[in-house]
């Protein structure tokens, strides 16, 4: 089971800039902590048990554009980026950073006809799937696996009404 102290949130916004859904999202992450690693947790995501810390970081579109340009060589913002830093030396931590663009999440929540907290949860699950090495852009099989895992984890964490992100790509 993944311990709850392994999941952290961060943002670069003033408190007044955060949407009211942020509190619900943090509560949902606590539920995700409790759910991750249980018997009914999807097998393709079991590798998360080997991760020492996962940081969910909320950024604006300009920051996301810079990250996407630096690491994916794409000069545009995207909704979610995942960075998995595996240990290089003994004693190093196995860390994942999941960056979520707030402005894009707000737009997508409207497009997907869901609330922002559900969209943030979906993007978080999507980032975790990437942290496990599953890349929906590689093949139709991985696209289907991503879609199924998104639905399964959202159902396990009490958000079955949120559509899978990969359904909109």
Q: Key terms for this structure?
A:
alpha/beta; 4 strands; globular
What topology emerges from the helices and strands here?
Elements: E1 7-11, H1 21-35, E2 53-59, H2 61-72, E3 80-85, E4 95-101, H3 102-112, H4 116-131, H5 140-156
Parallel strand pairs: 1-2, 2-4
Antiparallel strand pairs: 3-4
Summarize the entry for a quick read.
This protein has 169 residues and is of the alpha/beta class.
Protein described:
By secondary structure, the protein is an alpha/beta fold. The chain has a single domain (4-163), classed as Metalloproteases ("zincins"), catalytic domain (Collagenase (Catalytic Domain), 3-Layer(aba) Sandwich). Helix content is 42%, strand content 15%. It contains five helices and four strands. It has helices spanning 21-35, 61-72, 102-112, 116-131, 140-156; strands at residues 7-11, 53-59, 80-85, 95-101. Strands 1-2-4-3 form a four-stranded mixed β-sheet. The longest helix is centred in the last third of the chain and has 17 residues, at 140-156. The radius of gyration is 15 Å and the shape is globular. The protein starts with 6 loop residues before the first strand and ends in a 13-residue tail after the last helix. The model has no long low-confidence stretch (mean pLDDT 86).
CATH topology: Collagenase (Catalytic Domain)
Query: What is the CATH level 1 assignment?
Result: Alpha Beta
* Secondary structure tally, helices: 5
The unreliable regions are none
Give the domain tally. Answer: 1
For the biggest β-sheet, the strand order reads 1-2-4-3
The chain-level structural class is alpha/beta
DSSP E strands, number: 4
Q: Helices and strands, in N-to-C order?
A: EHEHEEHHH
Please outline the major beta sheet: 4 strands, mixed
Overall geometric form:
globular
CATH architecture: 3-Layer(aba) Sandwich
Query: Over all CA atoms, what is the radius of gyration?
Result: 15 Å
């Amino acid at each position: 089971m993944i311990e709850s102290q392994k999941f952290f949130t961060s943002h670069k916004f003033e408190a007044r800039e955060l949407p009211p859904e942020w509190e619900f999202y943090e509560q949902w992450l606590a539920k995700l902590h409790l759910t991750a690693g249980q018997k009914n947790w999807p097998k393709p995501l079991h590798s998360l048990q080997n991760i020492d810390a996962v940081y969910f970081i909320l950024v604006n579109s300009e920051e996301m554009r810079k990250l996407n340009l630096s690491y994916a060589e794409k000069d545009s913002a995207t909704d979610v980026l995942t960075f998995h830093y595996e240990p290089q030396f003994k004693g190093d931590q196995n860390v994942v950073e999941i960056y979520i663009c707030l402005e894009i999440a707000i737009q997508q929540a409207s497009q997907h006809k869901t609330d922002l907290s559900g969209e943030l949860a979906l993007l978080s699950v999507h980032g975790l799937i990437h942290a496990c090495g599953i890349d929906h852009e590689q093949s139709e099989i991985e696209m289907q696996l991503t879609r199924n895992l998104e639905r399964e984890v959202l159902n396990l964490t009490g958000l079955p009404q949120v559509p899978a992100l990969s359904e909109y790509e």
